[in-house]
Every structure is written in C-alpha cells, then in structure tokens.
Design goal:
- The chain is of the alpha/beta class and 245 residues long.
- The protein contains eight helices and 13 strands.
- The strands form four sheets. The protein has a five-stranded mixed beta sheet with strand order 3-2-1-4-11, covered by helices on one side. Strands 6-12-9 form a three-stranded mixed beta sheet, with helices on one face. A three-stranded antiparallel beta sheet has the order 8-7-10.
- Helix 1 links the parallel strand 1 (2-8) and strand 2.
- Helix 5 packs parallel to helix 7 (215-227).
Length: 245
C-alpha cells in the first residue's frame, strides 16, 4: 500500500481540502489525525480512501505517527499546508531506484549541519521544499511534511510523542540511530507550493514551538547534533564517485 499520513487541527480547515485533493489521486489511502476536532468533516468521512481519527489528546505533529503501517507499505508523511504536485508520489518513489528504501529515507525539506562560507564555520544549510535544488543531498534532518519511507522504518507513536511539536528532530534521530541516511531530493523552483497564509502563521508550530525554543526541543537538538552521521550536506553524486555509497 502507498499511504500518506497527515495531522491537522481546526485552524487549517480552510486549506486542508486543497492539500487532500492534491494527494488523494496519488496514494492508496490517506490516514488523517484530526487534533482538536469534535467531529470528522463530512467530506472526509464520506471518502472511502480516507481513514480519519480524532485522538483523545492533542498529538500535534506526532499525529502523523498515530497509524501503524504494514512492514512493506510505502509511507509518505505530509503536511496540511502544502500543495503537492500531480507527480509527487511517482517522482519520489522513482528515487528509491538509486537510494534503496531499506537504507534510505527521502524528502524535500532538509537541514544539514555543515561548514559554510569562506571561514568554513559550521551551521545549518537549509533546503526548502519550494526552492530549486539541483542535486540529491545527504541531510541530518528531514521535515516530516515531505518524507517517504518503508512502513517498517516509520517511527511509532510511543517513540515520537515525547517530541510532539518538534517531531522532525526525533524522527531524524531515530533514523540516524538505526543507520539510515536521509536525503533532500532534487526539484525545480515552485514544483511544490506552500498554502500557508499570514493569518495562519501565529498558530503554526514554527511560531508556537520553534521560535519559542523550549528546553525539551533544544535538548533534542543537542542530542541530534551529537549523534548525527558523516557527510552532511554532500551531494549524492560526489559520495558515489568517492565510493562512499
């Protein structure tokens, strides 16, 4: 099964169906965690391709991991504020031909901790999903709005709920600990588009959690930096030509 896992909450209702409509034709099933909802909206409840649930607590972004896939399923973790292009799934799965799913996790929003600039000072290099990226690059973190992985590799809710609000960091650590490499894939400028609007920014996790820099998140980040693997920010072609892949 090719499945997409998404978490949402009521402030995103105005844009949710745009995201859903962009994904549904490309997957076998969409699994949707409806945080803070009282009922499942009819448009979702009536679609046989959608499995929607209302959790008994606010799972925030950890809700993407509230569903347990079969081992050989392909799981795409997705966000409720991205417009996915019509060839998103097919194009992503094609990358497993050169980066086999048993060892690799793929995505389009990545962060690599690497030496930058003339002084070679270490810092984050960010690969944004809506920006052009001509190469596949090994990263330390993938945004869980754009990942693709095998069902047996998907972190389970009990592993990740403790990092609700900053699950990207825990998700990255779990894959690194398991010896899997994460990649930001090539794409053209604007191939993917953000549906985020100014009025939604105050309720976003970027604003409420990331900018607030709570201690648990910073502890998770420090642990990630201590555990990260080699070759951050390196292009796939260069690693391959050097015999490192």
């Amino acid at each position: 099964m090719i499945r997409a896992h998404m978490a949402t909450f009521p402030p995103r209702s105005a844009i949710l169906m745009q995201t859903v409509a962009s994904l549904l034709p490309q997957v076998d099933r969409l699994f949707l965690c409806l945080n803070h909802h009282d009922t499942i909206p009819p448009a979702l409840a009536q679609d046989d391709r959608i499995t929607a649930m209302i959790p008994d607590r606010d799972l925030r972004d950890a809700g993407k991991f509230a569903f347990v896939p079969d081992d050989d399923d392909i799981v795409l973790t997705v966000d409720d504020d991205i417009l996915y292009p019509p060839d998103y799934v097919a194009r992503t799965l094609a990358q497993f031909d050169q980066l086999p799913a048993e060892r690799h996790v793929l995505g389009y929003l990545g962060n690599a901790w690497m030496a930058k600039g003339k002084l070679a000072q270490e810092g984050w290099k960010n690969f944004m999903f809506h920006k052009r990226a001509p190469h596949a690059v090994k990263v330390d973190v993938l945004g869980t709005g754009t990942t693709c992985q095998l069902g047996r590799h998907l972190p389970r809710l009990d592993q990740i709920e403790g990092a609700a609000g900053f699950v990207d960091l825990r998700h990255a650590r779990l894959h690194t600990q398991a010896g899997r490499w994460m990649w930001s894939l090539p794409r053209e400028e604007g191939w993917m588009a953000s549906l985020m609007t100014d009025d939604l920014l105050p309720s976003s996790l970027f604003t409420t959690v990331n900018r607030a820099r709570p201690r648990p998140m910073m502890d998770e980040l420090r642990a990630l930096l201590a555990e990260r693997g080699p070759h951050s920010g390196q292009q796939l072609s260069r690693l391959r030509s050097a015999g490192l892949l």
